[in-house]
């Protein structure tokens, strides 16, 4: 037996190992539970294979364990319902239009047609300065006050019902597209709720109606690199300083569509809070066509020929939206649809290419939208659509071959709350929840559009049966109504029959 220069005895539960100094490998393995010792090279070879194998298994387990901490869950959300004294009724809208300067008979008829066909009802909300008659001369305080009223209401309710303290928030993301202040709106939230000094803050502006999912992408990216975090996402739009007072039709249209609203959302990647989560983010895709001049200029804030600031909605908007939508679907479809549907699509495409004699006409909607060859219902249970207007909802419905049941949440949200910009998706989701449509395991597909031009979409998995009425608590039983007919035509239809509306002998008293 070779001379033992120096040895250490290492004890384990099952064996003892003698390590010999100046030896590049283990010479002997003694199993304490066996009456004999193993010295053959085969056992040594097994050991050499065992160590890296166990290490590889450890790395694989660690990778899956870390992946579970990278999930993005929604714990709760709270939409904003302004007080009733900010509600836009038919008569007040007539007064508001009447006091707008530089409008002639043709502009009045255009506004009547736009409002009647918009899909918006009589219970939407506007900023306070409009009710005070100061829409033509807004102040900075008007914009800040509008946002703070939303912040203090929705964030407070969200934290209270989630039983979360402001000091527990690790990440704050705020997106308000058309109002930038110093200090930022996010700083005002931190000051009001006295959040921690090390809270990570992201303040977005100018991102348009699709900013909500852009903010969600920021949170998702943070959750991939940092464990056990709570994030607060704030999404809204400030209308106080952005009411257009000119006569350019492409800018007047924005006054007919956009309304006050907002939403506060609490998210986490904490594994311990998984059982309390409402939704889990499965995938998110962003498409940006800003490099195309036609798409870039179709939806833009600018001044008219008389220097009045407004939001221009161009005639090329439907075409730009369709292109962005198609490109976005091309990327997200393989992520959310089952293999059988993708194989069916590939087979159908192959047959179509082979059969050159087939000239089937395309199904085209009035908006120019083309029906998708993919059946998105095979991978999606609910469709949460951006409430950009009746034409937008109709176009998406045609493209994805959706039923009226699928479109109902978006139509009802547009009717009740209008287009609340980036927060509109959450009002639609809230309608689904109030109607108790969302069951555990369901897949919810969100689609939004925004200036730039952008199309963003994502897929959520419902983690438990949901049924909170949120901002629909006082009216959900009334929806859907028997008719969505807008009362504007009944009240103001006479404008189409006269040359000068304000020389009309039967002019309503409240317009005189």
UniProtKB/TrEMBL annotation:
Any single biological process term in GO: fatty acid biosynthetic process
Catalytic activity: a very-long-chain acyl-CoA + malonyl-CoA + H(+) = a very-long-chain 3-oxoacyl-CoA + CO2 + CoA
InterPro entries in alphabetical order: 3-ktacl-CoA_syn (IPR012392), ACP_syn_III_C (IPR013747), FAE1_typ3_polyketide_synth (IPR013601), Thiolase-like (IPR016039)
Keywords: Acyltransferase, Membrane, Transferase, Transmembrane, Transmembrane helix
Protein name (Swiss-Prot/TrEMBL): 3-ketoacyl-CoA synthase
Residues annotated as transmembrane: 44-61, 201-223
Pathway linked to the protein: Lipid metabolism; fatty acid biosynthesis
PANTHER family named among the record's database cross-references: 3-KETOACYL-COA SYNTHASE
Any one annotated GO CC term: membrane
Source species, domain of life: Eukaryota
GO MF term list: fatty acid elongase activity
Domain Beta-ketoacyl-[acyl-carrier-protein] synthase III C-terminal positions: 380-461
Positions of the catalytic residues: 209, 288, 382, 386, 415, 419
EC number(s) on file: 2.3.1.-
Domain called FAE: residue spans: 66-353
Family the entry assigns: Belongs to the thiolase-like superfamily. Chalcone/stilbene synthases family.
Record keyword Transferase present: yes
Acyltransferase is among the record's keywords: yes
Protein's organism: Glycine max
